[in-house]
Design goal:
By secondary structure, the chain is mainly beta. Helix content is 0%, strand content 36%. Strands 1-6-5-4-3 form a 5-stranded mixed β-sheet, with no helix packed on it. A two-stranded parallel ribbon has the order 2-7. It is globular. It binds calcium ion.
């Protein structure tokens, strides 16, 4: 397991078939009691503490995990996920959201 404490980072060799998971903990005081939500490829809703995933348009083996922690619908941090398989982006089952 690789841990990232900063607002951005890169995960290499992500393989959902091997049970790899991405653990994200969002701490934001105004949303302290609101659970972090995985929204797939949808746009941020403004609810705060949301995680979305898109494919890097320049590299099919890369997913971009974007995080809006404060509900302003703007990305506060992102993680580049370099995948061993390109056919599936990381889904809800691939995240542990705290
Ligand atoms: Ca934001």
């Amino acid at each position: 397991m690789t841990r990232f404490w900063a607002a951005r980072g890169t995960i290499s060799d992500f393989n959902t078939l091997e049970g790899d998971q991405i653990r994200i903990s969002i701490t934001w005081r105004d949303f302290g009691t609101h659970d972090t939500t995985f929204i797939g490829g949808a746009a941020f809703t403004g609810a705060g503490k949301e995680v979305r995933v898109t494919r890097d348009p320049n590299d099919f083996f890369r997913a971009i995990v974007s995080i809006d922690s404060d509900g302003d619908r703007r990305t506060d941090g992102h993680i580049v996920v370099e995948m061993t398989h390109f056919f599936d982006l990381p889904g809800a089952e691939d995240f542990v959201l705290i």
